[in-house]
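seq/struct pair 1
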Amino acid sequence: MAKTRVGVLFGGCSGEHEVSIHSAQAIAGALTRGANQEKYTVTPVYITKTGVWQFGEIAAQTLQSGEALAVEMDDVTASDRLPDRQQLTNIDIWFPVLHGPNGEDGTIQGLLSLLQIPFVGAGVLGAAVGMDKIAMKTAFAQAGLPQVNYVAVSRAEVWSNPCVFPKLCDRIEEALGYPAFVKPANLGSSVGIAKVRSRQELEAALDSAASYDRRIIVEAGVQAREVECAVLGNDVPKASVIGEIAFESDFYDYETKYTAGQAELTIPAQLPPEVTRQIQEMAVEAFQAVDAAGISRVDFFYVESTGDIFLNEINTLPGFTQTSMYPMLWQASGITFEELVDQLVQFGFERSQ
């Protein structure tokens, strides 16, 4: 029986380029171990930081080393970026492992959809809504899912005349108070996020976030436990056990996420059974609200003093290293890493039909 050719697509133009390489290493390794070794053959495809698609030796070397390509072309044109069509279509199913913009925001999903080749994960709609925090929260609100208060802001309001900006800050202070979190709407891994406790910090954070994205969201701060749930499936998704993240920093920022020892993960989280059940149900509802597929991690705030549960966000392409929360949650739920990637590939085929 011929093996299924899986194109593992990684790297990309976002600030999460290195994280993508490490996730791809873990996925490619799992697809070539144990029972998967007889089922799949992996073709690594590396997108450089300037957007050039690399097949063959460069892609294989990058995947093996875990290091981004050091030297790139100075002048890159559109014709340099995309590969030959035959290279793209000589794949049975794609496994996109591209975190952040141009990877989990619907853009690569649109290209793969046009090629009519199956791929793992959310389609254009699910990826786009899951990436944009304003669109995501709008979908969650429509589904009746509880969230902390927030204010949507545009770059034009921030970089406006001296009369408009103070009124914007007044509106945010009145609606949310302090502390609050200022976030670019379309970046992952906590890039560009700031916790603010004063007018001066709010103004600086808004200006910084506007440099990353034209859409910004400001959320009310809440004293809560941060818990996460993994979702797996398509039209009938299932939820994993719950995991909890504890850390000493102000919030779960980029350094805390990707520096060993900065955060403590507890799996399963020590929660009342009823709270666990509610979070699992809400995770599936959030997955369906944005029309996700295959894979997602859903993050929550649990206010222990009141029993309130607030949905924070969904990540339709979470980190996928051996120590990432998503595969660890499924490991604790009885699905090994190798079984998990196998199921995701099968869900990709199912979705394409």
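seq/struct pair 2
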Amino acid sequence: MGETPDIEKTEPEDDYIHVRFRDPDRYDEIRTPDWAEKPAESVSEGSEVRTGHVEGEDDWEVTSVLIETHVGEEKAEEQAREIVEKIESQ
């Protein structure tokens, strides 16, 4: 996998801070895969990873990471970057 992408946007929502790395509109399908739970939970308990599939390609890319709101925006961005680095370096 390549370099860790930059954060495009950070949006506080009800229970999560949504840290977006890639535009979700470029994907034909987005999932929250079970395999991403372990690297996500190892950094931030209760976090989730969303991945997207580009039509015609084999790979799935991390589109965003959801971190529980109690962490705060700045810490959520740090944790989201760490999660993406773990996943994309495998």
